[in-house]
Specification:
2 domains, two-stranded antiparallel sheet, 2 strands, 10 helices
Length: 231
């Protein structure tokens, strides 16, 4: 009995079923089905190309822009200096909103830069809101930041808790407190103001000359904003 005769004796339904099974085996072996996180991660990386990851434009590699934008914002501390960085952070939050939290955790374990970008976004926004000296009061704690900027800050805070936990967020907040500057004494002329000897506002055992206790630092900082009002 030749092959054609064997095939002819197989019921059509059985033949179709056999072909489908073989096709499925081929797909699984040579092109494995991707799980949800693989698909969502690919979408996230595509959305963030050129911002948090490199991309290719007209045959040339464009390196991630977010670090350059961050440094310019930190140094300039103005709407103009921070515009690109804040736009980049808003795009990051938009991408995170459709990126499942469990997938973010898995991705962060293998890609330290992912968590780093979120942490730096929180730190820089909190620092530029504070400015060059302590805000005059609670009403000034957002500095020149807009409502949209505060929403971005709040979302990044919620996102980082998912990745590192509430306790580590408190440690991050404490590290920012230590960087909040105090106003320069009037006796120090502007050309003698060395950034390395800049007085800091947070009063601690290592900085007894600080003028603000921990609770006062919190009240005047962006960290005290009620994020439930900026959902």
């Amino acid at each position: 009995m030749n092959l054609n005769q064997i095939v002819a004796r197989i019921p059509k339904f059985g033949l179709v079923l056999g072909v489908l099974i073989l096709a499925l085996i081929f797909i699984v072996v040579y092109n494995p089905l991707k799980d949800e996180c693989e698909v969502k991660t690919a979408i996230f990386l595509k959305d963030m190309r050129g911002i948090t990851s490199a991309t290719r434009i007209k045959g040339k590699i464009q390196y991630p822009q977010i670090q350059f934008w961050k440094d310019r914002c930190r140094e300039g501390n103005s709407i103009g200096a921070c515009e690109d960085y804040f736009v980049g952070l808003r795009k990051l939050t938009k991408a995170l909103k459709v990126y499942p939290e469990q997938c973010q955790v898995k991705f962060a374990e293998e890609n330290p830069w992912f968590q780093k970008n979120i942490i730096e976004g929180i730190m820089v926004m909190a620092l530029v809101a504070w400015g060059q000296e302590p805000p005059a009061g609670i009403s000034e704690r957002a500095g020149w930041l807009t409502e949209s900027d505060v929403k971005t800050f709040c979302f990044l805070k919620r996102s980082i808790v998912n990745l590192i936990g509430e306790e580590q967020l408190l440690a991050l907040r404490e590290s920012v407190y230590l960087q909040y500057p105090q106003a320069w004494p009037e006796s120090v002329e502007w050309d003698k103001q060395d950034p390395l000897s800049r007085p800091m506002a947070y009063k601690t055992p290592s900085n007894p000359s600080g003028t603000l206790e921990k609770n006062e630092i919190f009240e005047r900082s962006l960290f005290s904003m009620r994020c439930d009002l900026f959902q």
